[in-house]
Amino acid sequence: MSSPASEVAEHAPTASEYIVHHLGHLSTHHQEKIVDFSIINMDTIFWSLAAGVFGCLLMWMAARRATSGVPGRFQAFVEMVVEMVEDQSKSIVHGDRTFIAPLALTVFVWVALMNSLDFLPVDLFSSIFRLVGIDIHHRVVPTADLNGTLGMALGVLAVVIYYNLKIKGVGGWLHEWLAAPFGIYMAPFNVLLNLIEYLARTISLGMRLFGNMYAGELLFLLIALLGSMATAFGFIGQVIAGSAWAIFHILIVFLQAFIFMMLTLVYIGQAHEAH
Q1: Which residues neighbour 250 within 8 Å (Cβ) at sequence distance 6 or greater?
Q2: Catalytic annotation, pick one of 48, 164, 190, 212
Q3: Active site residue 204
Q4: DSSP 78-141
Q5: Is 190 in the active site?
Q6: DSSP, residue by residue, 196-250
Q7: Which of 25-34, 50-59, 95-104 ranks highest by mean pLDDT?
Q8: Nearest-CA neighbor of 210 among 152, 123, 269?
Q9: pLDDT beyond 70 at 11
């Protein structure tokens, strides 16, 4: 007969099992193939929508409480963000920015909020689920899921195509595909080069955000494992390393949101330029 201690040791996850469990998604079904578009990561969708709704609520509260007098801290912070986005859009996009500047603001706030979910304790929701007797894979950070970041990148691609058609027209955009950059006589090479450009910047836009947030989430998990050592080194190392990485990660969270917004503006700005 096995002792209670041996049963606990038997069921305690290893470091690799702990990481794999926390990096798993709450999906509609198990993925068997490398690429399977029928799978839906429900946790990514839920937290993306939750961050979007929360961001809209913040902007609505800021607009409702806005005063013409001396602004409070919250209003001053929101005005600073709006002014920053407006200045960047003005310097990059030369044309009508009635929709573009709010779009850039939405992108920045939404991505920043989704990235900020990485500051929640890694075991928070796993512990809550275990309390109610549920053992499921669940990830909180939508931008640490490649499906989520590539989905946003495809959204940016759709906006870029829309502005290309709006500014240049169907004929002008097709002429750009055929004639730029080597001239109309090199049309096949121009089409291939433009196709590669659109694919490369779309994939890199999604991969850049995913790579940084995935690496940050993985580091948080590795730091959390220090606490499992049950030694002074493990505890102190977890506190020091966790605090230092959390402080540094604040910069990464907002820097990646800023980069995603800036690249969105750059790609839309290129759609306003003729070649």
Answers
A1: 119
A2: 212
A3: yes
A4: HHHHHHHHHHHHHHH--S--TTHHHHHHHHHHHHHHHHHGGGS-TTHHHHHHHHTT--------
A5: no
A6: HHHHHHHHHHHHHHHHHHHHHHHHHHHHHHHGGG-SHHHHHHHHHHHHHHHHHHH
A7: 50-59
A8: 152
A9: no
* CA gap 135, 235 in Å, rounded: 26
- Annotated catalytic residue, options 6, 204, 228, 243: 204
- Model confidence pLDDT, tens digit, residues 189-208: 999 999 999 999 999 999 99
Please, are residues 179 and 84 in contact by the beta-carbon 8 Å criterion? no
pLDDT value of position 230 = 63
Structure tokens at 239: 């506190």
Task: For the chain, give the mean pLDDT.
Answer: 85
Q: 41 catalytic, yes or no?
A: no
Dist. CA 235–CA 260, nearest whole Å: 36
Among candidates 48, 88, 83, which has minimal Cα distance to 259?
88
Which tokens sit at 109? 């706030």
Higher pLDDT, 83 or 244: 83
The pLDDT of residue 2 is 44
The whole-number pLDDT of residue 3 equals 45
Distances (CA, A) of 163 to 37, 39, 108, 269: 28, 31, 20, 9
Taking the C-alpha atoms of residue 218 and residue 255, their distance in angstroms, rounded to an integer, is: 18
pLDDT at 6 over 50: no
